Amino acid sequence: MSKKPGPPNGKHFVDKHKVQLIKRVSNIAPILDELQDNEVINQEQYDKIRALSTSQDRMRELYSGPLKASSACKDIFYRILLANEKFLVEDLSKK
């Protein structure tokens, strides 16, 4: 899968599949760990997101903050998703 996740050919994968990612990403803890490690989120954001009760709420919080910041953040998030939710990413890539 060598296809780039973002523009110029349209919407970034992370934006295009926002609703499905919010619904279907379940194992968010390692994703948050890697986002923090890659400096996409800081300790305060990490703690705030971890405190939310559902994975859907955690994903919504990611979308309302860090994933709005830049294409680079979305690219990092995409790579982390590919590593942690490979089958979900592959399923969504077919749509």
Could you please describe the fold and organization of this structure?
The protein has one domain (13-93): Death Domain, Fas. With 95 residues, the protein is mainly α. The mean pLDDT is 90. The chain contains eight helices and no strands. Helix 3 (28-37) packs antiparallel against helix 4 (43-51).
CATH H-tier superfamily? Death Domain, Fas
Ends distance: 15 Å
Inertia-based shape? globular
Determine the strand fraction and express it as a percent band. Answer: under 5%
Count of separate structural domains:
1
Structural class: mainly alpha
- CATH architecture classification name: Orthogonal Bundle
Helix segment count?
8
CATH fold title: Death Domain, Fas
Q: Over all CA atoms, what is the radius of gyration?
A: 12 Å
Give the helices and strands, then pairings.
Layout: H1 13-16, H2 18-24, H3 28-37, H4 43-51, H5 55-64, H6 66-69, H7 71-84, H8 86-93
Helix pairs in contact: 2-5, 3-4, 3-7, 7-8
A few lines on this structure:
The protein is mostly helical. The chain has helices spanning 13-16, 18-24, 28-37, 43-51, 55-64, 66-69, 71-84, 86-93.
Task: Name its key features.
Death Domain, Fas, globular, 95 residues
